[in-house]
Specification:
Layout (H helix, E strand, L loop, with lengths): L19 E9 L8 E9 L2 E7 L4 H4 L3 E4 L4 E4 L1 E6 L7 H12 L3 E6 L4 H13 L6 E9 L7 H5 L8 E2 L2 E3 L6 H9 L5 E4 L5 H13 L4 E4 L7 H6 L4 E3 L24 H4 L5 H13 L2 E3 L15 H23 L4 E2 L14 H11 L5 H15 L17 E4 L13 E6 L2 E4 L10
Parallel strand pairs: 1-4, 1-5, 6-7, 7-8, 8-10, 8-11, 11-12, 12-13, 13-14, 14-15
Antiparallel strand pairs: 1-2, 2-3, 5-16, 9-10, 16-17, 17-18
């Protein structure tokens, strides 16, 4: 270690601990479930929230502080996209452009749901220390059965190595030393193990038990094939992804493999009243399993096509996602707002805005519940609920500032004026979509 160079410049680094900023005059949606509070001041000390008080009480904190007048603005906790993929395949400029757009759109944290963690780990470090603009990244290391690893994506994220034989993407069999496998995954600095495909209930339960023994959460596909949604939940996972996969709790044939999904009872499920799903949702609620629904995925531009069969399949999956997401919400399941896609680079706003609008307009979920899903529940899904997701003293200074109230109209997310992430300000006016091209 001969060099003492400071390394790359950190233009977006959080301020040093101590500089105090008072954001005054806001209407605050704090993410905890309490009603919005008008006339509120948020006192930030470095990267942490020190106090949340009525404006008239803020005078006690203003001496020596920078005061930012946000009268008339609406503030929420920093938003969370609970389902991103930034490096399949690795493309550093594209990933940095996505991260830049996200943080300038109020997004303070994301879950990266398995990628080439060699690049993701560096991106997570770079956004954390301030080398690049972006949200905090909480990422998963993947485990699946051997049959999954001929998927082309597994080769994209393990270039130079063998799919299934790297710490961030491991094939699990009866012969796997699970304590070692989990320890290797943890060595990537992963926030969780992602259980993906081609594993039976016994393997899902064993991975989950060992991960929890070592203090790391488990995020799973809602059906792992042949493990059913009910078996995945029974295994004790912390979060499940893709609401349409929950339909396989009512599959019309046994689940076998990820590539060979059986039909589901579509007509019965789109009523939103299926008893099999109702029992599953009750179990999820009791265990605190978060549902990363990715509800709007099939209605997105990702599934735009000239092929009528593709269009019809996407429409049926959209109909299914609407029914099951609404049913899960009615049952009291905690929803996180994941996307699993991004809008085109030239678009000014991220896919997360589309997901939130879909949940409000298509699934009929109140905007207040959707904003809580996009903040505190999203943070909990990432294992970071103790750090962020709500505007409370002691938590990170992660804020999204809007000129108009998205509770009144969810499209008012597009009036974002400022993001505060770990105390560092990212004005929307500093962002240009052309930077992503």
């Amino acid at each position: 270690m001969m060099s003492e160079s400071a390394g790359a410049a950190t233009p977006y680094a959080p301020p040093e601990q101590g500089p105090r900023v008072v954001y005054r005059g806001v209407t605050l949606f704090d993410g905890t479930g309490t009603p919005p509070r008008p006339g509120t001041s948020i006192v930030v000390d470095g990267s942490v929230i020190r106090a949340v008080v009525d404006d008239e009480e803020a005078e006690a904190f203003t001496e020596g502080a920078e005061v930012v007048d946000l009268t008339g603005h609406f503030v929420t906790p920093g938003l969370v996209d609970a389902h991103q993929h930034l490096a399949t395949p690795p493309d550093r400029p594209a990933a940095e452009a996505v991260l830049r757009r996200l943080v300038h759109s109020g997004v303070a944290a994301i879950r990266d749901m398995a990628d080439d963690l060699r690049q993701i780990g560096d991106l997570a470090r770079a956004t954390r220390v301030g080398e690049i603009a972006g949200p905090d990244i909480h990422y998963a290391a993947l485990m699946a059965g051997p049959g999954f690893f001929d998927d082309p994506r597994t080769h994209q994220v393990t270039q130079g190595a063998a799919p299934g034989e790297v710490p961030w993407m491991q094939a699990v069999t009866d012969a796997t030393d699970l304590p070692l496998a989990v320890a290797m995954a943890r060595g990537t600095f992963a926030a969780a193990i992602k259980v993906y495909a081609d594993l039976d209930a016994t393997h899902v339960a064993a991975i989950t038990a060992e991960a929890h023994r070592q203090g790391i959460p488990v995020w799973a596909h809602a059906a792992v094939f042949p493990a059913t949604p009910g078996e995945v939940v029974e295994a004790g996972v912390d979060a499940v992804s893709h609401v349409t996969l929950l339909a396989h709790e009512a599959a019309t044939a046994p689940l076998t493999s990820y590539k060979d999904k059986p039909p589901v009872d579509h007509a019965g499920l789109v009523t939103g009243e299926d008893e099999r799903l109702e029992k599953l949702f009750a179990r999820m609620r009791e265990q605190g399993v978060v549902l990363d629904a990715t509800a709007g995925l099939y209605a997105s531009s990702e599934f735009a096509s000239d092929d009528p069969e593709v269009v019809e399949r996407a429409a049926r999956n959209t109909e299914l996602a609407i029914a099951l997401t609404a049913q899960a919400h009615r049952a009291g399941v905690e929803l996180a707002t994941g996307t699993d896609y991004e809008t085109p680079p030239e678009e000014p706003f991220p896919a997360l805005y589309e997901e939130l609008a879909f949940l409000v307009r298509r699934c009929g979920i109140p905007a207040s519940d959707v904003l809580r899903s996009a903040t505190l529940v999203g943070a909990r899904s990432a294992g970071a609920g103790d750090l962020t997701g709500s505007v409370e003293p002691g938590k990170l200074a992660d804020l999204a500032v809007f000129a108009r109230d998205p509770l009144a109209d969810i499209d008012d997310l597009r009036t974002i004026t400022l993001t505060v992430k770990r105390g560092r300000r990212f004005p929307r006016s500093a962002y240009r979509p052309r930077e992503n091209r």
